[in-house]
Amino acid sequence: MEDGRTDQVNMAFIAAIVAVATIGGFMFGYDSGVINGTQKGLEAAFDLGKLGIGINVGAILVGSSIGAFIAGRLADVIGRRGVMMLAAVLFLGSALLAGAASSSLIFIFARIVGGLGVGAASVISPVYISEVTPAAVRGRLSSIQQVMIISGLTGAFVANFVLARYAGGSTAELWLGFPAWRWMFWLQAIPAAIYFLALTAIPESPRYLVARGRDGEAEAVLTRLFGATEARRKVVEIRSSLAADHHRPKLSDLIDKASGRIRPIVWTGIGLAVFQQLVGINVVFYYGATLWEAVGFSEDYALQTNILSGVLSIGACLATIALVDRIGRKPLLLIGSAGMAVTLATVAYAFSTAVTDASGAVSLPGNNGVIALIAANLYVVFFNMSWGPIMWVMLGEMFPNQIRGSGLAVSGFAQWIANAVVSVSFPSLVVSPGLAVTYVGYAVFAGLSFFFVRSLVHETRGRELEDMQG
User: Fewer CB atoms near the end CB (10 Å): N or C, the chain?
Assistant: First the structure.
């Protein structure tokens, strides 16, 4: 606690809790990234065209948007840990069913189920972490969520690469007569099971417990986290931060009773969530292999490029962990917006020079392939040192206690809808108006995000959750 009450903080226990909670981020990343590298298998197995691929890839996003909205509200009913355990079950079921799918329809259903888990984990893990950590290090610990998301993505990329290399291609037979791309999905069942078992060992969020009138349980958890004296003080502080009439959190709390309008903080949360997607980051994570193959890279080299992007992303997130509680959230967002606008514009230029030879093969002339690769990876670095982790950090901490679950529900829903629009539209946009124009559009949104942050986002560094205004 930043006002001197740090002597009783049990950082070992807090670190263990954060480690378990962020497995949800790993599952979020793995389930989102596993599709990257399986698309040839899906095309061959289900006879899919460009639109069909877009629908099968984007199916997870339908589930994610629903899962994010339901989870935010459900977290106020069955608790933060309860929602995370439900997400673990959904991850497990989706992994088994997606790998075994005999038709596109079954596959789409399996991915929607997985999406429910992704959406739930995406909003609940950050808020749980923010509710069990001291304000002075909250940004640092909450940022670990993004490291785990990228670790999950990178883990999926590495697994896909190894399985495809071992089998001789993603559509080649691997074990038990099944092609490698099916095993790419089945492998996810292992971390999903670990996630569920680990969740049984961590406590419920004390802020949820107080909101449900379970002050004694909340005090017991807070005592383990911060010591008995601070626990008693925090229970009183949390209680006073809730609605004056002590009603349980509900969706209508997002409306300001005085003005009858949606609270400004809700619009800020929605804006952060939507801009994070409109800069096109998930095009890199969902379609990275396809993207690089489209400009002349081999499947093997394209998969290796995915791994490079993942490793750079983790490095960028580690930089965020070192900086977020020192220089704040808002400066990092502004740096990220400016950096992404420049690098996306550079990628657009490189793609605009693509040429097609007599055989139909596409390539980037001269050094433009290298320029595109460097700019794309710098873009990934800028995103993952700013908007990647910081958006989730802020959504987990910026809302007052009374509306945190509902605010997350609405913002998370908006984030995944924007994700779906960008991801499902990308295969068609590659055909017309083309990669270059598409990336110009992402660069424009990156530029707009700079002015959005400068005007509407307020710094939350070092502030207690009970002090958040909305």
Answer: N
The closest alpha carbon to 60, from 84, 22, 30, 80, belongs to 30
Model pTM? 0.75
Judge whether 157 and 286 are in contact, CB under 8 Å: no
Cβ atoms of 164 and 180 within 8 Å: the answer is: yes
- The residues facing 255 across adjacent strands are 262
Q: What is the DSSP letter of 136?
A: G
Q: Which residue has the tokens 């009450």?
A: 5
Q: Write out pLDDT tens, residues 306-360.
A: 677 778 888 888 888 888 888 888 999 999 999 999 999 998 888 888 776 655 5
Distances (CA, A) of 14 to 73, 86, 289, 386: 25, 22, 38, 24
- The domains of the chain are located at 11-467
Q: Which of 190, 21, 20, 27 is nearest to 118 (CA)?
A: 27
What is the dotted CATH code of the domain comprising 11-467? 1.20.1250.20
Buried b (16+ CB within 10 A) or exposed e, 444-460: ebbbebbebbeeebeeb
